[in-house]
Amino acid sequence: MLYRDWLNLKVNLLWCHNQPVASGHPDSGRVLRSENYTNAGAWLVREGWAQVEHDGECHRADSGEWLIVKPGPRVQSFSADARLISIAFEARWPDGSHLFHDGLSLVVDDPEKSLTLEKRVRPILNTMKQVNPDTWDARDHEVDFTLFLKLERLLCLWLSTLSDILRNDGIAHSGHGGVDPRVRAAIDQLQAADLGQPIDTEHLATLLQLSQNHLIRLFRRDLQTTPVQYWNRLRVEHARRRLLQPDAGVKQVALELGFTYLSHFSKWFKRHTGITPREATKKEG
What we know:
By secondary structure, the protein is an alpha+beta fold. The chain has two domains: 3-168, Jelly Rolls (Sandwich); 181-280, Arc Repressor Mutant, subunit A, CATH 1.10.10.60. 42% of the residues lie in helices and 19% in strands. It starts with a helix and ends in a 5-residue tail after the last helix.
């Protein structure tokens, strides 16, 4: 791939923490389950066990092992006494596809490889303490430019180590080249826009000196989607993330996305996710 193709890859840290899974849940004498997370990530099991189920497969990691999870819909379960180092990140191409996907999930049970990944994640953990002592979702906490760059650098070092380990297991990263610069510019506009406002495809096309139909054709050719579908994906991702945060109620998230009526938001969310907003607020099943 050309260097300019790699410029289309978006890489960001979402969170990184080291704590018991049952933290904050008084009823911890049972298996903890969740179906609400779809992010890319990895867990180093310090105590207990962790597992994910997807595509008819089940992957379980025990103490001392890493579980590299496949991004997308899944059921994740943890023993009541589970304690993890958890790192969640975004490494995606403009069409929303993930850098690491095919071949996952994967359990890394080799002690040397596990230790190498742990050494790379420890500096991220330490730096995250400067962002928020609870280390939950870095995106909603203020950081200065220097700290942001430090986190990005540390994440890239960790991803580089992960890539080497995955490659040795026959898992290659995906590669997307040839995205039209006008599509990239349109994506930048959409990602910077207010998610609570309706998308104006005609205005977006005008900004790029294109016709609306031409812009749609470019999106379909390069991303296999349309601007409206891409916009809805951004809104759904925002809703999923916010609903998992304890300080954001369903009504507040609905208002953030421009819904006047809660019932309209609920129908829209369930149509796109298969679950209700109330169900999405639960971290465990």
